[in-house]
Amino acid sequence: MVLLPKTSSAPLLLGLGLLLGACQSATTSVSTPTATTAETIAEADLPAISIVNPVLPGDFPDPSITKVGDTYWATATSSNWGPAFPLLQSTNLTDWKLVGHVFPGELPAWADYYFWAPEISQEGNKTYIYYTAHKKGGNLAVGIASADRPEGPYTDHGPLVAQPDGSIDAFPMRDENGQLYLIWKEDGNSVQQPTPIWAQRLNEEHTALLGEKKELFRNTAAWEGNLVEGVCMIKRNDYFYAFYAGNGCCGHTCTYGIGVARAKSLLGPWEKYDKNPILTKNEKWACPGHGTIFNRGKRWYMLHHAYDTRSFEFVGRQGVISEFSWTANDWPDFKNGNSIPTKEAPLAPRNFKDEFDQPTLLPSWQWPIEERPTVAVQGGKLLLTARPQHSGAVLGQHTTTADYTATTTLLNPSKLPAGTVAGIAAHGDPENTVALTAGNGKLQLWQLEKGQQKTLSEVKLPAAATALTLRLQAQNGNLFRFSWSSDNGRTWQNLPGVTAPINGTYLPPWDRGVRAGILAKGPASATVAFENFSLVNQPTVARTTDN
């Protein structure tokens, strides 16, 4: 990914059986899936995947995936939401569990924000995460972290490459001689320049580049627009294949698509497919990009992100799977007319409820990466320490559909310290928020847009209320209504003078979706107590394909 003006994504990886890596080699010798490998033969009779998209619902751009034993591990861009880089596990590619993060606490000492493009890779008994982040005092750079287990803990080894215009979207690959290389994109489009894809030798410790870099290809085709990026490689039969994204990644006007190039040697020469792009939008899914290739027996798939055309940037780029086969001329050919599967099937909504009855904060909670809040969970309560700046101390949850309802119970609102407010909110980033809060003797509906706060409505706070239930209702991802209850949700009251939903189109930054959550704004000496939080996503219709 890159700084604005930009359209971007990040790499991915998935391995099968003994391979452990499908888009790269997994041992010290080249071992990538081909039509004759033992892994392919062993899995040839496995049932096909029944794909129900999205497989990673919510804001999971640039998903990367690998297989260790019988378990799939995935991660994705977290951008400016902490903790950095989620770690998810699954045994069936459909049901995923969030088990932690690559950097759950302290961030790498060299980086400050824009945590993009994590590539999870298994080699031997070691798990590696290649990732992009903004270097303190510099530009975007590629770093690496490693762990003895996919779930961590991870040790950061610092940046590998940091070009003046930015270096992003790293991917490891071994050449025809078994030599390890790092593949990455020079972020030229951030300064109105082309975007070369580079390859350079990487030492066996995965900690430093060796020798000189070599350009593989750059954006030259009309459909690629001002960039190519997010390369994932495989080696099949006689060819290396580079699957890549091109054009504009993000928002309602996105133009992203996926192309492919091939070469008989890793360092080229590379030939782009004359039928690119090979994966494009349809009526349900828009702007597919940044994909990972994996195979199950003789069937081939790509895990990549795309926008649901109903929710677009308000939910964010979601993880989806598309199947492809190979032509007689050995080029990939996506099914469903080179678009993402759209056969309809019912999908149960992914809901969330937290009674704050666990000893620690659940791992799905997120916060602004540079403004980590101080929290404690005890006695069935979440204690959130206020912050005076921006939107205050913020916690948020992914949304997975365009329509949803979030509620929370705020305890003792009339006893909050002077100058302190707390409540429920739709979060874009620290300077873009819509919130209903209690404090200073009143309930207040307000919005923060580009750091400028405006009160939309307020009413006197019930003095006797020991708890207030606050509700946020979203429609189409960008229209918000708020209400409150002093009797545990039996009856609801609206704010005076607010007859139409609040337009939150301005909330999400260009590269991430809206979060529903809570906040506490005020002096850092103030602590606010919440009793619960729930997020109910309205049932929707998903798309599936039984291959």
TrEMBL record:
InterPro entries: ConA-like_dom_sf, GH43_C2, Glyco_hydro_43, Glyco_hydro_beta-prop_sf, Glycosyl_Hydrlase_43. CDD domains: GH43_ABN-like (cd08999). PROSITE patterns: PROKAR_LIPOPROTEIN. GO terms for molecular function: hydrolase activity, hydrolyzing O-glycosyl compounds. Residues 353-523 form the Beta-xylosidase C-terminal Concanavalin A-like domain. The active site is at 62 (proton acceptor), 229 (proton donor). Pfam families: GH43_C2 (PF17851), Glyco_hydro_43 (PF04616). It comes from the Bacteria. Keywords: Glycosidase, Hydrolase, Signal. Coiled coil: none annotated. Residues 1-25 form the signal peptide. The record marks 169 as: Important for catalytic activity, responsible for pKa modulation of the active site Glu and correct orientation of both the proton donor and substrate. GO terms for biological process: carbohydrate metabolic process. Belongs to the glycosyl hydrolase 43 family. PANTHER family: BETA-XYLOSIDASE (PTHR42812), ENDO-ARABINASE (PTHR42812:SF5). This is Beta-xylosidase. It comes from Hymenobacter chitinivorans DSM 11115.
